[in-house]
Amino acid sequence: MKQISTFEEYKAEYKRSVEQPEQFWSEVAEDFEWKKKWNTVLDGNFEQVNIKWFDGAELNITENCLDRNLKEKGNQTAIIWEPNDPNEKFRTLTYKELHAEVCRFANALKNLGVNKGDRICIYMPMIPEGAIAMLACARIGAIHSVVFAGFSAASLIDRINDSQCSFVITADAVYRGEKKIELKKIVDEALLQTPSIKNCIVFNHRDSAIEMKPERDLWWKDLVKDASAEHAAGSMNAEDPLFILYTSGSTGKPKGVLHTTAGYMVYVGYTFKNVFNYKEGEVFCCTADIGWVTGHSYLVYGPLLNGATTIMFEGTPAYPDHGRFWDMIDKHRVNIFYTAPTAIRSLQAHGNEIFKNKNLSSLRVLGTVGEPINEEAWHWYNENVGKSNCPIVDTWWQTETGGVLISPIANVTPLKPSFATLPMPGVQPVLMNGDGEEISGNGVEGNLCIKFPWPGMARTVFGDHERFRQTYFSTYKGYYFTGDGCKRDEDGYYRITGRVDDVINVSGHRIGTGEVEDAIDEHNVVVESAVVGFPHDIKGQGIYAFVICDKKVDDDEVLRKEIREHVSKVIGAFARPDKIQIVKGLPKTRSGKIMRRILRKIAEGDTSNLGDTTTLLDPAVVDEIKAGAV
Ligand code: PRX
User: Fold this and answer.
1) What residue ranges line ligand 1, CB within 6 angstroms?
2) How many CB atoms lie within 10 A of CB 477?
3) Which of 357, 475, 540, 620 has the fewest CB atoms within 10 Å around its CB?
4) pLDDT tens-digit map of 491-515
5) What pTM value is reported for the model?
C-alpha cells in the first residue's frame, strides 16, 4: 500500500485527493483484494445523504485481514494477548492460527443459523476471542454490534433491542486490575428483557461459577470443537453493513452508527499505514477497548489489513503498578504505541520511578486519541516515553468517521503540541461561523465540519436514516457536522477545542449529558437534573450534576451515593457523576429551557461573569446555586 514519506509528498497527495477524489481513492483501493471490482467509486452527496463508495464491488474484509496474509505471514504473530495479571502467560496467535479460529467460529455461527445481515451482540473482555467473534461475523456477513463490557445490563438491553440482535457472545467473567466483572451475570440480567436473542454463546475465560440456561446458553468451546478450520469467505457487496457501534449524542438514546464494508476497509487500511507510518514486521499496541471505535479500527481491522502484529491488553495502566504500559512495551518490543491523553495524565503524576528498568528503545511512533491533549501531557509523553525521539500523532476522529480524519503523519508532518495538525488525504475540513458560512483564511475559530465524503464515514443510524440526516447533516446544509469546535492557526494547522454540543468527554468516553440526566431522574426523590462537564485534571472532563429533589433529604451524602450507584446501574460506572449539587431550582428561561451556559460556568468555578441572566424566569436561583457549588 502506498505510504507517504515526505511533507512535500503529503501536500501533493492531499491536493490530488481533493482535485480528483475518485481517482485518488480508486488507486488506494487497488491495493486490496476484491472478488469483483467496483462500477463507480463515489455516489451520492451530503445534500441527499446517500453516500456509497465502490458500489458494485464484492469482497470480504476478513480475506483482506487474514487469507491474504497466510502465504507470506502465516507464521507471523497476528495478535499478542497481554493478560490483566502480568504473571499469567501471554498468548499469541499467528495469522494461520487466527485464520483457523475465525473460520471455526464462522462455521459454528453458520451452524447455529446465523445469516448475512443478522445482528450479533458481542459483550466480551479484551481477549482474542473478542476479535475472533468480530471477524467471524464479518466472514459470514453478520453485522457485529460490540458493546463495551463496562456497560450495565440496562445499557445492554437498549442496544440489543434497538438492533434486534439474535445472538449475544460473552465470557464468564474477567478481572480488570483486582476487580472481577461478572459478565455472564450481567448478560443474564439483560436477557430477561431481550426477546430477539435466541442464544447466548459463552467463552470460558476464568472458570467462574456461572449458570448456563439450558437451550439458550451454549459454550464457545463446544461449538468450535468439531467445526472446520476452513471457511470460504462470503461475498459481500461494498455497501453491505459491517458493524453497528452505539455512540452518544446531544439528545435521545445512543445511536447505532452503521459502517459498511468496502469504504471502511479501504479507509482504515490506508490510514493505519500512513498515520502511524507502519513498517513491515512492526508490533503495534493500541490500548483502546474493542468496545469503542478505536478498538475496531486500530486494534483489529487496521493492523490486520496491513499484516501487522497487534497487541490486545486486558488490564489497566495502573495494575499491578503504574509501570504496566512500559513493562508491556519492553516485554513485547512495541514499535508503535497508541493511547488516550487521560491515561497519560493519570501516569504523569507518578514521577519517573515508573520507568525504572523499563527499556523503551523499541518505540518509534507514539499516538493519542479520544480527547484534546494538553501541552503538558504532550511534552511528558514526548520526553519520558518517546525520549524526544518518537513523533506523536494526535489523531482526531470519531465513531462516525470510521478512521482518523485529522492527524500528523508520523515522520512526515511537522508537529505542534496539542494540534491534530492537518487533514488526511481525501478529507476536507472547514470551520463554520454562527451564520452557517464557511470561515476562510487562517488564525480563525469555528465549528468543525467536513465538506466532502470520505470512504470510512458512517452511512446511517441503524433503523433510523432520518435521525442520521438530522444529527449530522441538518445544522449546516450539505456539510457533515462533527459537533466539535476547532481553531485553525496561522499555519493552517487544526486544533480541536472540544465538543460544542451537549456531549461530554470523560476519560475519552463520550457521554451525552441527557443520558446521565435521564438516569438521575429515575431516582425516586429526584424531580429534575441538569448535567454539565467541568475541567478535570486527569479525566479531561468530569461530570457535574445539579439535582432538584421533591422532598427534604436528610442526608445529602447518602443521596449522592445513591445517585452515583444508580447511574452506574443504568449506564455504567464510567458515567458516575464526580460532583452532585442538590439545588432548589435550575436557571431556566421563560420558555422553560435550562441555561446550561450558566451551569457550565458555575461547574468550572468561574462565576465572575455569568453573562446576561435577565431572561431567566427566576434570576435568584443563580445566586443560590453559586453559593452551594461543590
Ligand atoms: O470531541 C472529539 C473527541 O472525541 C469525540 C469522538 O468520540 P468517539 O466517537 O467516542 O471517538 C473517540 C475515538 C476516535 C470527538 O468528537 N476527540 C477524539 N479524538 C480527539 C478528540 N478531541 C481532540 N483531539 C483528538 N485527537
Assistant:
1) 247, 293-294, 369-372, 394-399, 420, 482-484, 496, 498-499, 505, 510
2) 9
3) 357
4) 999 999 999 999 999 999 999 999 9
5) 0.97
